[in-house]
Every structure is written in C-alpha cells, then in structure tokens.
Amino acid sequence: MRFWRSLLVVFAVLVALGIGTWAGREWLLRSAADIWIVSDPLGPADAVAVFGGGVADRPLAAAQYYAQGWVTKILVDGSDSEAVLLELGTPGTAIETFGRALGSTYQEALALRAWAERHNLHSIIVPTEIFSTRRVHWMLHRVFPADFVIRVAALDPSVYNRADWWKDDNGISDFKIEFLKYLYYIVRY
Question: Which of 77, 73, 72 is nearest to 51 (CA)?
Fold first, then answer.
C-alpha cells in the first residue's frame, strides 16, 4: 500500500510539473537560465583574458574593461581576438598572448594559470557568453589556487539574450550544447 501511495505522489508531482511547464513555459525557461548563468561582480583586476571562440562578444567586453581602467592587460589565446581588439582601438602594448593552439577551455585555463604565475597576477576577469559561464567558472576554479580572484563575466550573445533565449534557435542550441559540455567537463576533469 505504501509503495502505491508513493508512486501516486510521484505521478502527481510529475503531472503538476508537466502542467506547470506547459502553462508557465516562459517563466520556467527564464528561471532555468537565471539558475544556470554564473556571473561574478566586476571590478578592477590585473588582466582580462579572452578565450577562443566568441569573437563577436568577448574582445568587445575586454576592450571595454580596458577603456574603463579596470585592467591594464588584455590576454588573448592567439586566436582572432587580437585583430578585433586592435580594430576596436586597444593599443598593441596592452595585448599579450597567454597560449597558442589551445583546443579546449581546460587547456586555456592551464595556459592562463601558467601565464598568471609567471607574471605574478592575482586577479583576472574572463568574459564569456551566458550559457558557457557555468563551465568556464567551474574549470577556472578547479585550475587556479583558491586565493586567486577570478571574475567570470556573463555576456549576452549578439543574436539573443537571457530574457528570451528560447525564442532563437541559436539560444536553444547553445543551451543544450553547454549543458552537455558541462556534464562532460565534470566527468572528464
């Protein structure tokens, strides 16, 4: 009897969640994004690091942090970001490469830590698109020592934003991909 009662409760909860999901879809999806996205408070740091990918958004954020005086160095991974930064008016003397031919966030985090140790840095801002923030934040905090200040900045991509990401195919795809990447990183690293 107890088993059937428990099964009935589970079934009722699933039905309620299903109806709630269908009826309150926008609220649920917006809430899911709010829970998923990790963004640290921003402020001055030793440098900002631009990881590969996200050439439309990450270099622009880095250039803004530099222009605001929050950082004196912009670190790039050897990708196309340097050219974008120069086009945005960032002086070449402010841009340095922390690694080349880095194929994953894990490799970027290791290379960034090595660069930070060689140059005696204590804090870094890492801007990334909203759905990759959780994975990037997790990886950086696994690689860097606990006393190092890492600020992951969540950037709305140029094609959608956190308020209505599910209305764009890119938003749906990005969320699914990042969810799977995060699970992979948790298992792999």
Answer: 77
Distance CA 149, CA 121 (A): 9
Tell me the Ramachandran region of residue 89: left when phi exceeds 0, alpha when psi lies from -120 to 50, beta otherwise: left
Give bridge partners of residue 47 from the DSSP assignment. 124
Residue 33: closest CA among 166, 184, 128, 157: 166
Domain boundaries, the chain: 2-34, 39-188
Q: What is the pLDDT of residue 33?
A: 85
**pTM score, two decimals?**
0.85
The CATH number that domain 39-188 falls under is 3.40.50
Task: State which residues of the chain have pLDDT below 70.
Answer: 1-24
Query: Rounded to an integer, what distance in angstroms lies between the CA atom of residue 186 and that of residue 189?
Result: 6
Say how many residues make up the chain: 189
